[in-house]
Amino acid sequence: MLKQLRKQLGLANLRVVQRGGAKVKTQYYERFERNIGIFTQEEQELLRNSTVAMAGVGGVGGLLVERLIRLGIGNIRITDPGTFEMSNLNRQLGCTVQTNGLHKAQVVSELAQDINPSAKVVYDVGGITNGQDAERFVAGANLVLDEMDYGAWKESIYLQRSARDRGVYYCFAGAIGFGALLTNFAPDGITLEEYNGLEAGQDLDRLESVTVAPEKVLPVYPSYINAAMDDQMIGAVLTGRKPVPTCSIGVGLASIMAANTAVNILLKRKEVIKAPQYVYLDLLDQQIVIGTM
């Protein structure tokens, strides 16, 4: 099975974490019976048979995998080249003193498998570096979620292009202080380049870097941002010279918003708010915004 998946996906670093056999599969509905009443049996079966491709399992991504596995998503594909470091302890699922230095993809995959042993969790530590990586990663997925690091603009465009070519939604959610921002890209809607104000259809392989304007990343400023950061610090963050400040509240909120939109897209429950619109929610400011980029 592992050799078959490697050949099919073309991922040299691919690993499959799956435990149990027929008996474990029969336990699926026992594990997720409390979902029934919120979901119908038919909807739960749809979730069990769905495949979600998750790029990035750091702050938002790791928690999002946990939300999805507890919802009963039966197939999750993960890619992330990162390893845990001590600065991740304030927000990232799976990050402990003991796991410091281990690959995030492996740790999160194993935690997900412990929750639902009948799920198929496929991970690799190669990440998305070019269009071919994105195409292989997206193949066979019903939904693509992008939780790669801030500043991975080229990699995100590769991923959204591949999702669009496959005819599936591409979504991302980011933590902003005590809040979060969510954007969903329909396969027949605007492109990520258009959303970010970039020239469409560029040959990304020829570009050394891609720059996105700050207002595209942070369309709504929390009221408290200047109380904790001066202009110099804000400038350093926006130019990539300093990591983005983040905490467990915003990260947790972003993961829940993304899990909610994933379920809505997979089950077709409600009309999806699509790009160029975005949803911004801040718990401290008690503010919700449905804006247009």
Characterize the structure shown:
The protein is an alpha/beta fold. The protein has one domain: Rossmann fold (3-Layer(aba) Sandwich). It has 13 helices and nine strands. It has helices at 2-9, 22-26, 28-31, 41-48, 59-71, 104-115, 131-138, 153-166, 192-195, 214-217, 225-228, 231-238, 248-267; strands spanning 15-17, 51-55, 75-79, 120-124, 143-146, 170-176, 179-185, 277-282, 287-292. The chain has a nine-stranded mixed beta sheet, with helices on both faces. Residues 1-12 have low confidence and may be disordered.
CATH superfamily: NAD(P)-binding Rossmann-like Domain
Instruction: Compute the average pLDDT.
Output: 90
Q: How many domain units?
A: 1
Q: Low-confidence parts lasting 5 or more residues at pLDDT below 50?
A: 1-12
Number of separate helices? 13
Features:
293 residues; alpha/beta; Rossmann fold; 9-stranded mixed beta sheet; 9 strands; 16% strand; globular
